[in-house]
Design goal:
single chain; 342 residues; mainly beta; seven-stranded antiparallel beta sheet
Length: 342
């Protein structure tokens, strides 16, 4: 996935999204025309049918790994997560799930979750299921092969849309995030061991070395896969990951002064209050962008005053849940911020 920084980030010399997110990163798959891990140095040990690369969420060619429902990549017995804190982050795009029910579920990123593993059912996996005609779910599951039932969190998803998912464990707390927003969390017993003897695979389930059998083939795309072991991710880090894929907006000259906006409440539901720098005598322009760099229409508002701090209220009730960027542009300054719409 090619990452382009939004112009307001570049102009104000803000650190790139994801800075500091390499600590305890044991594998990173950018999928820029390669199925190899940039960090972790993992290579596919074999391929079922074949693989192809397609456009990512912002349309960059050959920057995401695509699956046709009959292909799978296998990397061998790697990426165990043990009893430590961990996080798994990736972007996905679901084309379809052809059957109904759990027996027709499709796998995307997996290390275990099969009776053929040792111990049986141990490890971690992601599932996509058509629970009823036209209704689909994304599920992250994990188990130590001893505790039953298998622990899992699932969330409804739609076809033909890009999503960014993060699952992280912090001690006994396990949390799933989708597009920056927390979906659910739960507590497990301490020290749940996810180590398992089975193959790590993308695009389907690989039961080797226990059984030479593969199925659950995924139809869709995968991008920017990261696996952390020995740390969990906090909300600010998760927001950085889910906003790393950002289209560049129209170039602007570097302003003489760049500042941060104060946004409250954050996350917000209906009204967002923006506090920024003092005006320079002329009304500033206000722009709001989603995580893909697309301009978003919001109800226009005017500063309460032309002196001191600028305060603006925006009506955001009609925005879809997710992360957004705000830019306030004066003639001699620029200010920016980021908020989450619940």
């Amino acid at each position: 996935m090619k990452r382009l920084l939004a112009t307001f980030m570049v102009a104000c010399a803000v650190s790139a999204s994801g800075q500091g997110l390499t600590d305890s990163l044991i594998a990173h798959f950018p999928f820029d025309s390669s199925a190899s891990a940039l960090i972790g140095l993992l290579e596919p040990t074999d391929t079922i049918v074949g693989l192809s690369f397609c456009a990512d969420a912002v349309g960059t060619p050959n920057s995401a790994l695509c699956f046709d429902g009959s292909s799978l990549l296998s990397y061998g017995d790697v990426l165990d997560l043990g009893t430590e804190d961990f996080a798994v982050s990736f972007w996905f795009y679901l084309d379809t799930v052809s059957g109904l029910g759990p027996n027709e579920a499709r796998r995307l990123v997996n290390k275990g979750g099969t009776f053929a593993g040792n111990p049986p059912n141990a490890g971690w996996m992601t599932n996509f299921e058509q629970v009823s005609p036209g209704n689909y779910t994304f599920e992250f599951s994990f188990n130590d092969g001893i505790t039953f039932p298998v622990d899992s969190i699932e969330v409804p998803v739609s076809l033909d849309e890009w999503y960014q998912a993060v699952f992280t464990r912090c001690g006994q707390q396990h949390m799933l995030y989708l597009n920056c927003l927390p979906v659910d969390s739960f507590i497990t017993t301490a020290g749940l061991n996810l180590d398992v003897s089975t193959y790590f695979a993308l695009g389907g389930l690989d039961r080797r070395p226990g059984q030479n059998s593969q199925d659950g083939f995924f139809e869709g795309a995968l991008d920017e896969l990261r696996v952390y072991r020995g740390r969990c991710l906090d909300l600010a880090e998760i927001q950085s990951l889910c906003t790393e894929l950002t289209l560049a907006v129209e170039p602007v000259e570097r302003p003489s002064s760049c500042r941060r906006l104060a946004l409250a409440p954050n996350p917000a539901r209906a009204v967002l209050t923006i506090s920024g720098p003092a005006l320079d005598g002329s009304a500033p322009s206000l722009s709001v962008y989603d995580v893909f760099g697309r301009s978003v229409i919001v109800p226009k508002a005017r500063p309460d005053s032309l002196t001191g701090s600028t305060t603006i209220e925006l009506g955001i009730a009609e925005l879809k849940p997710g992360a957004y960027f705000v830019i306030l542009q004066g003639s001699q300054w620029q200010a920016h911020g980021r908020f989450i719409k619940e």
